[in-house]
TrEMBL record:
<comment type="subunit">
    <text>Binds to the SNARE core complex containing SNAP25, VAMP2 and STX1A.</text>
</comment>
<dbReference type="GO" id="GO:0005829">
    <property type="term" value="C:cytosol"/>
</dbReference>
<dbReference type="GO" id="GO:0031201">
    <property type="term" value="C:SNARE complex"/>
</dbReference>
<keyword id="KW-0813">Transport</keyword>
<dbReference type="Pfam" id="PF05835">
    <property type="entry name" value="Synaphin"/>
</dbReference>
<dbReference type="GO" id="GO:0019905">
    <property type="term" value="F:syntaxin binding"/>
</dbReference>
<feature type="compositionally biased region" description="Basic and acidic residues">
    <location>
        <begin position="23"/>
        <end position="70"/>
    </location>
</feature>
<dbReference type="GO" id="GO:0043204">
    <property type="term" value="C:perikaryon"/>
</dbReference>
<feature type="region of interest" description="Disordered">
    <location>
        <begin position="1"/>
        <end position="105"/>
    </location>
</feature>
<keyword id="KW-0532">Neurotransmitter transport</keyword>
<dbReference type="GO" id="GO:0016079">
    <property type="term" value="P:synaptic vesicle exocytosis"/>
</dbReference>
<dbReference type="GO" id="GO:0043195">
    <property type="term" value="C:terminal bouton"/>
</dbReference>
<keyword id="KW-0963">Cytoplasm</keyword>
<dbReference type="GO" id="GO:0046928">
    <property type="term" value="P:regulation of neurotransmitter secretion"/>
</dbReference>
<keyword id="KW-0770">Synapse</keyword>
<protein>
    <recommendedName>
        <fullName>Complexin 2, like</fullName>
    </recommendedName>
</protein>
<keyword id="KW-0268">Exocytosis</keyword>
């Protein structure tokens, strides 16, 4: 940078930087202010959420509704319990009244009565 005034390098952000002797204390104050603002914001949000929850609870009480978490927990518990007549219930080996040889014979006799003669002869063999 020849030919220019001697302060041009400093103006362009080169060589020397002046350090503020209070820079560390200012940074600490800034950080503390940020923490304080964040705490105030969180407190304000918590207060608003508490008010909202109070309103929600009033509505739940008025209309007999359950809290979402409680309703979801009950739905999950109901899904775990096998329902009577559901497709996923364990099957019984032999339902009551089925599988008796005497009943099967009586059913075959009933069917045989309604079949024509040649079919009856064929089934008897």
């Amino acid at each position: 940078m020849g030919g220019g005034p001697p302060d041009v390098g400093k103006m362009l952000g080169g060589e020397e930087k002046e350090e503020d002797p209070d820079a560390a204390s200012k940074e600490e104050e800034r950080q503390e202010a940020l923490r304080q603002q964040e705490d105030e914001r969180k407190g304000k949000y918590a207060k608003m959420e508490a008010e909202r929850e109070g309103m929600r609870q009033g509505i739940r009480d008025k209309y007999g509704l359950k809290k979402r978490e409680e309703a979801e927990a009950e739905a999950a518990a109901a899904a775990e319990e096998p329902a009577e007549g559901s497709l996923t219930r364990p099957k019984k080996l032999v339902p009551a009244g089925c599988g008796d040889e005497e009943e099967e014979e009586s059913i075959m006799d009933t069917v045989m009565k309604y079949l024509p003669g040649p079919l009856q002869d064929m089934l008897k063999k």
